[in-house]
Design goal:
The protein contains twelve helices and twelve strands. Bound molecules: nicotinamide-adenine-dinucleotide.
Length: 337
């Protein structure tokens, strides 16, 4: 699996690309790949303190791309950033489900209202921009059955998922009515280098990894839940593959390279990390209310439209992830010391 080169369906040389959330986890990995492919990349990011923003994510690339510190809620700023761009990877978001319940207004502002402002801005300054908009599996809520395909009913389990649905549909609506060219990807749990690991805000797996590498036993809540995990390099492949013409105007699930129970995932992490251990615990009350049970993705439609398939295995992804955090305890693990 590892020997395949990354797919590059387009010639990216000189292409002007805007990545909102480009200093965060997924955005920075995408930015690095696109710079390597010759694109002119601008990362637009508000550096939200508790999100995945980390300038070190772009280490070694800062002289080859542009970073604009800006908030997608600031319409003049995002409009100026969009001007002259050919492709928009729209990854900036309020991503915490728990936070969306604590502060629903901020979630609406970023995940819904700012999305409306972005499509309006595209309409005025970049009407033919190609947009790949990141959404989430969370929009399906607790699945009736797995794997989940795109015809599964939407049953948002939290405020975040409601607003992510609004964001999706603003992009699609403006595509239909005004001729912009959006694609929406509903992503599953993503892991890999540059994910936030200093707490569980971004994804439980990052927090597990931080504790495993620090020799602190980590807690697995429940343990029986099935999750599908996607290595970030495979997700970057998918984001790039989504720019292909047949994907325009569509919503697709993008799954990962492995589906397994949380207990098995914890076991794989412990087996790969000397000194690591875990304990099974009950779900905390605030989490169990918005937990979605089991999830795995049916991404047949996306594969058929773009030819994408996960290129790297879970073993490769986990190994590369652990190597990355071994090599870069600073700045990612620093607060644990
Ligand atoms: N990581 C996952 O497991 C996962 C799963 C499903 C969907 N997604 C989606 O992928 C996208 C990227 O997620 P990520 O994991 O890279 O998160 P992240 O927190 O690492 O990155 C998000 C970035 O957006 C920036 N941002 C937040 N609010 C902003 C605002 N108002 N204006 C400008 N920038 C802002 C943050 O500073 C951060 O750098 C999100 O849309 C998320 O919903 C991620």
């Amino acid at each position: 699996m590892t020997s395949l080169p990354p797919p590059q369906p387009l010639d990216w040389t000189g292409r002007r690309v805007l990545i909102t959330g480009g200093v965060g986890f997924v955005g920075s990995n995408l930015a690095r790949r696109l710079v390597d492919a010759g694109a002119q990349v601008t990362c637009f990011d508000a550096f939200v303190p508790n999100d995945g923003a980390e300038l070190f994510n772009l280490d070694g690339y800062l002289d080859r791309l542009r970073v604009v510190r800006g908030d997608v809620r600031d319409t003049p700023a995002i409009t100026a950033a969009l001007e002259g761009q050919e492709v928009l990877f729209n990854l900036a978001a309020q991503t915490s489900h728990v936070e969306s319940m604590r502060d629903p207004r901020t979630d609406i502002e970023i995940n819904a209202l700012a999305q409306l402002a972005i499509v309006e801005a595209c309409r005025s300054v970049a009407p033919r921009i190609r947009t790949v908009h990141a959404s989430t599996r969370q929009v399906y809520g607790r699945p009736g059955k797995i794997p989940v395909d795109e015809s599964h009913p939407l049953a948002p389990p939290d405020v975040n998922a409601i607003n992510k649905i609004s964001g999706e549909f603003y992009h699609l609506l403006y595509g239909r009515i005004y001729g912009s060219r959006p694609t929406v990807l509903r992503l599953t749990n993503i892991y890999g280098p540059r994910m936030r690991v200093r707490d569980a805000r971004q994804m439980f797996f990052g927090w597990w990894i931080a504790q495993a590498l620090s020799g602190v036993p980590f807690e697995v809540w429940g343990g029986h839940q099935i999750r599908e995990l996607a290595f970030v390099e495979n997700v970057v492949d998918a984001l790039i593959a989504a720019v292909a013409e047949p994907a325009i105007g569509q919503i697709y699930n993008v799954g990962g390279e492995i589906r397994l129970s949380l207990r098995d995932l914890a076991g794989r992490l412990v087996a790969a990390t000397p000194g690591a251990a875990f304990a099974i615990k009950d779900f905390p009350a605030d989490r169990s209310l918005i937990d979605v049970g089991d999830y795995s993705a049916d991404d047949t439609a996306f594969r058929a439209a773009t030819g994408w398939a996960p290129r790297l295995s879970f073993e490769d992804g986990l190994r590369q992830t652990l190597e990355f955090y071994h090599a870069h305890r600073r700045p990612y693990l620093e607060p644990l010391r």
